[in-house]
Amino acid sequence: MSTTASRATRVAAPPSPAASSPTGWRLHFAVLALIWGFSFLFIKVGTEGFAPLQVTLGRVACGATVLLVVLAVKRQRLPRSARTWAHLAVAALFLNALPFSLFAFAELTIPSTLAGICNATSPLWGMALSVVALSEDRPTRRRVAGLGVGFLGVLTVLGAWQGFTGTDLTGTAMALGASLCYPIGWIYVRRTLGGSQDSHLSVSSAQLLLATAQLAVVTPLFTSAPTAFPVWPVLSVIALGTLGTGIAFLLQYGLVAEIGPTTAQMVTYFIPVIATAAGVALLGEQLSWNTPVGALIVLAGAALTQSKPRRSTPSPVVASGPGRSATPPHSAERSGSVACANTSPTGPSAAPGTGAPAPVPHAALAGGTPDED
């Protein structure tokens, strides 16, 4: 574009963060997928030594500790608004305490591979709920088709044509219920905390603190204090909390800042693959042909529910004059404030069930993908 000496018209193109350090973000992407994929194995091993509620309590407590340490190092503070804390208490219930507990109870009777596949249904629930709860979120034919394809995949995984024989329906229902909790939480947060100015780290730390408090009250009422602390279950709970619920959060939002939410959310599709590989290779879990086939169908349906219609390329932001700068589109995705967060309730976010706090529907997994039409 030509410029004049007296007045310049500049067109700002969106930056391409992924191009700046392809090796770095791909490594982080792979590590995040591995951490979340192995979370279901950690849950399984943890429940071999502790009650499900104890596993979940240890998980959120370890995750909260990691985030609070980082919060202190960065000299940030927890939210001050009582209203924010009240809404985060609800978010902690639906995005942490309840689904984490349901997955732990489910894995008492179902393999970790099936739990990981059930986790992948969360975008399907999200799309179905958003149509009812969010009037501005209108479904497209492609997304409705994705919903049908996804639930066909669930039936394939469960072997519906065989009368669901060989599958524990109670455990499977718990795992599917856990996946349903996430979009309920996302929709609630979208309605209540979308304009919060607290940082991702601040609200996530507060949310995990609240989830820890909730489970600290409930767990003693339904379990007895453990009499032994076997090594592998202890290490699994610690790994589940520190890696899958604490460090994974930091990797998640680092990826969003580096490559944007659209690419970062793709990590969700690797989770059931890794969960299945880990369960078969390390736990000796058995697979019938319909499990991996159904998982692929579920993932295809989830991808369709998050597809976006093609749009004409928007006009670039133009800033006239040498003293003015153009704001690149989607710069808000790299902001630390909740006000700039993504608000899609249908994204896989929070790597549902895998440990991301998903405190608010920010721009990535534990919370979502860019808003869809």
TrEMBL record:
Residues 29-158, 170-305 form the EamA domain. Belongs to the EamA transporter family. One of its GO terms (cellular component) is membrane. Signal peptide: none annotated. Residues 343-364 have a biased composition (Low complexity). It is a multi-pass membrane protein. This is EamA family transporter. The chain crosses the membrane at residues 25-43, 55-73, 85-106, 112-132, 144-164, 170-189, 201-222, 234-255, 267-283. It comes from Streptomyces benahoarensis. It is found in: Membrane. Pfam families: EamA. Residues 1-22, 308-373 are annotated as: Disordered. Keywords: Membrane, Transmembrane, Transmembrane helix.
